[in-house]
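W.,

You were right to be curious about this one. When I first looked at the sequence I had no strong expectations either way, so I just let the prediction run and decided to look at it fresh. Below is the sequence, 212 residues in total, followed by the output.
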Amino acid sequence: MLPVFGSAQVAFIELESKTVPEPNVKDTAVENWNRAQPGYGRLSKEGREMLYWTNYARRNPVEFWNNAIQPILEAFPTLNRNEAVTLKAALMMVGPLPMFVLNKVLVATAQSHADDIGKKKAPLGHNSTNGANFGSRMTAAGIKYCANENISLCSQSVLLSMVLLYLDIGVADLGHRKTLLNPVLHEMGVGSAQYGKEENQYFIVQDFACKQ
């Protein structure tokens, strides 16, 4: 099987700064699953949060809409556009998906790209500062089969960044959303780095792959 690599178009939304509503109760099944993954302890705080919300949404798509997305749409009404309508339909229809397992290679590739872009405050994108594209990075890391990458700039909360990836406002092919809801993708790595010297602003990378 030949490698099939994909990366989603980049889209970033400017929002007013305000408190981001979050569910009051955590899903202990998701937390226990994540903590049991090899390499979980090496993830940053932002990486752990991104892993939690990614797997929470996979396990509880309807609850993710009701408990996380809907309150954010009410707090940020400019996000309540057609993309929100299609996202609600997708989450209500998809049903629970298998939670991602951490892959130490993907953790390394995600963290490496986060460090490369974030610490240098380079232009946001899937290409490394040395010009290597996503497919080249995956091939060099030894990822043999299908893989995808999502990137986000977290400036208010990790959950808000996650919701923006799902909404995919301005991304014609809904590539971030499709990746997050893809049942074929089984393994994941996540990395984060402060974006330049900007306080409380982090560049977050999610790398995904089929079962290797």
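Here's what jumped out at me. The beta strands are 5-7, 101-102, 147-154, 187-194, 202-209. And, maybe more interesting for your project: The chain is about 45% helix and 15% strand.

Coffee later to discuss?

I.
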